[in-house]
Design goal:
The chain has five helices and two strands, in the order ββααααα. By secondary structure, it is an alpha+beta fold. Strands 1-2 form a two-stranded antiparallel ribbon. A hairpin with a 2-residue loop joins strand 1 and strand 2.
Length: 115
């Protein structure tokens, strides 16, 4: 979003979409500004709430767990220190981050590869 006033942080969002006997789950990492992280967590909560319940048997069990997880990580989106997802991303990608520390465009690509 090109927000330069807020520090980046991380989140993990969980979503489920169910169709009768099939459920599709997704877990993704995102590094972004707090507003974008909140937006993604909200979208995942709405998706789980509306589309997650229609599968047998996982549609009954998984949406409440994913909604809880999304709410829990959403609470960490605006903390001032780096949160767990951001620290994990940094630890996993320290080589690329260090290699591209003077190249903002390449750093953006490292972050975008998560999505």
């Amino acid at each position: 979003c090109n927000n330069t006033r807020d520090k980046l942080n991380g989140t993990i969002y969980h979503s489920i979409k169910s169709i009768i006997v099939m459920s599709i789950t997704e877990t993704r990492w995102i590094i972004a500004c707090p507003d974008c992280l909140d937006k993604q967590n909200r979208k995942a909560i709405v998706s789980c709430s509306l589309l997650g319940w229609w599968g047998i048997p996982w549609g009954i069990l998984t949406p409440p767990v994913y909604i809880y997880r999304n709410l829990k990580v959403k609470g960490e989106n605006r903390i001032s220190d780096p949160n767990g997802p951001l620290l994990s991303f940094t630890a996993d990608n320290i080589g690329q981050i260090k290699a591209f520390e003077n190249n903002p465009e390449k750093l953006k690509n490292v972050i975008k590869d998560l999505r």
